[in-house]
Amino acid sequence: EDVPSQTFDNKDYFCGKETFPVYESIFTAEGETIRKIAIEIEKPPQIEIHVWTIRKGILRHLYVEKLSKREFEGLPYFKLITRTTLSQWKIFSEGEAQISQMCESRVCRTELEDLVKVLYLEKSEKGHC
């Protein structure tokens, strides 16, 4: 039987932890891929966007920008990919810092893909939080 999802104040919760929407945008031009991963944070209300520039599988440039929700809404190409907790986002950010150093001179496609997978929360069975 279906159990309705638990919501409090229209926010999604995962094992009692609040979750936040994560968006992705991928743009490819002239042999270069620009991949953006963004999270919508409520306090302060803003969007944090992590921008990766990848050329031939090598992470060439990484930077973080912060925008207001209104500025973000005007950006094209972003799609919602998941919701995550702040603790998972912290793991993502720390992993990103390690990968940016490690991948300056070698191909890191799988490492970057695995890093994004950190953001996806696994649905736990009821009572296993």
From TrEMBL:
Molecular function GO labels: BMP binding
Domain Chordin-like protein 1/2 C-terminal intervals: 10-129
Location of the protein in the cell: Secreted
Gene Ontology CC terms, in alphabetical order: extracellular space
GO BP term, pick one: negative regulation of BMP signaling pathway
Record keywords: Developmental protein, Glycoprotein, Repeat, Secreted, Signal
Main location: secreted
Domain of life, source organism: Eukaryota
UniProt xrefs under InterPro entries: CHRDL1/2, CHRDL_1/2_C
PANTHER family recorded: CHORDIN-LIKE PROTEIN 1, VWFC DOMAIN-CONTAINING PROTEIN
Protein name (record): CRDL1 protein
